Amino acid sequence: MNKDDIENIVNPVIGRHECYLWGIEILRGKRRPTLRIYIESHEGAGIEDCENVSRDLNYEVELESILGEDFVLEVSTPGIERRFFNFGQLNDYLGEDFKIKLREPLNGIKNISGCLTECKDQLITIETSDLEYKLEFGDMDFCKLEPNFEKIMKESEHAK
After folding, report:
1. pTM value?
2. Residue 149 CA from chain centroid, whole number
3. Which residues have C-beta within 8 Å of that of residue 23, sequence separation ≥ 6?
4. Per residue in 88-111, pLDDT tens?
5. How many angstroms separate the CA atoms of 153 and 124, rounded?
6. Which CATH code of 3.90.228.20, 1.10.10.10, 3.90.1150.10, 2.30.30.100 fits the domain covering 87-146?
7. Exposure on the CB side of residue 17, measured as CA atoms within 13 A
């Protein structure tokens, strides 16, 4: 099962709804696989966008040829605690807090939480309270935004 093949099928459908592909996950279920597609738009994708993309993807028979006839399709936005699927997605989030899980331990550490301070040449820099880590995006099992909910609430109170 090749994610590139799936991307080639879903990208035109997502684009017709003025959204773009954020990421794809393929989960192996006990009975059937789940194809989870994350979409976003420059205005912020919503539930209607997810519903429309999901409905249109149900008619893409090419997905059945890749996943089989019996699979679960989920279309969602990445959400506030979004996962990052490629290096290029990170630049807009400099100064934000992240939670990272490495594929292999680095000095005995596999989980890192800290502030993203730099993205350059496929390397990201994460500052924690006591150390600075320079990490390759490909060495990460996952990379998720770790929002500061107190800061978000204060900003929303000022917006009123």
Report:
1. 0.86
2. 19
3. 37, 38, 78, 83, 84, 85, 86
4. 999 999 999 999 999 999 989 999
5. 28
6. 2.30.30.100
7. 25
